[in-house]
Write a structure and sequence with these properties.
5% of the residues lie in helices and 47% in strands. By secondary structure, the protein is mostly beta strands. Strands 1, 2, 3, 4, 5, 6, 7 and 8 form an 8-stranded antiparallel beta sheet that branches. A hairpin with an 8-residue loop joins β3 and β4.
Length: 163
């Protein structure tokens, strides 16, 4: 019997791209390449893009049945980011000022240096930036800010960029 083929993996290092689009069609490569869009990937710390999805459960009990059924319920999206600040070219701190709204565009498993292109598969996360909280200083570290992002609309996963 032949061995089952192992799926090829992609290293996470260098293969994530995150941009903030304050307005316009976030699925448009032209908008992503525009002056208003901010590249944020390398502003974040290694653990600084913490996106979670929670799926709630609907209980479905039945009269006298010894087993309780369940069904999938609503989902909740949460995002907390941590990024560096204090340098000459602050990007994230300015782009994500408290109260700012827009869309985060996230591309996974493609080399960061590859430009946005029509056909790229991305996630769109509509957000409103929460309060920027300066993190306490620690030895042998850099200055960082932690900030919650309020998800203000439906997250679109695995959508395709257009020209």
């Amino acid at each position: 019997m032949a061995l089952e083929l192992a799926e090829q993996s992609v290293a996470a290092d260098g293969s994530l791209r995150v941009a903030f689009v304050p307005s316009g069609n976030a699925l448009s490569v032209a908008v992503l390449d525009g002056d208003e869009t901010k590249a944020l990937t390398y502003s974040f710390t290694p653990s600084g893009f913490n996106r979670t999805t929670t799926e709630n459960t609907i209980e479905d009990p039945r009269l006298t049945l010894r087993q309780s059924f369940t069904r999938p319920g609503t989902t909740s999206e949460a995002l907390e980011v941590q990024y560096v600040f204090g340098g000459d070219d602050e990007v994230a701190r300015i782009a994500l000022a408290e109260g700012t709204t827009g869309t985060l565009v996230v591309r996974y498993a493609v080399a960061n240096e590859d430009e946005w292109a029509a056909g790229d598969v991305v996630d769109l996360i509509p957000i409103q930036a929460g309060r920027q909280r300066k993190d306490p200083p620690t030895a042998n570290s850099v200055w960082t800010i932690t900030q919650g992002m309020y998800v203000t609309g439906t997250v679109q996963e695995d959508v395709v960029l257009v020209a």
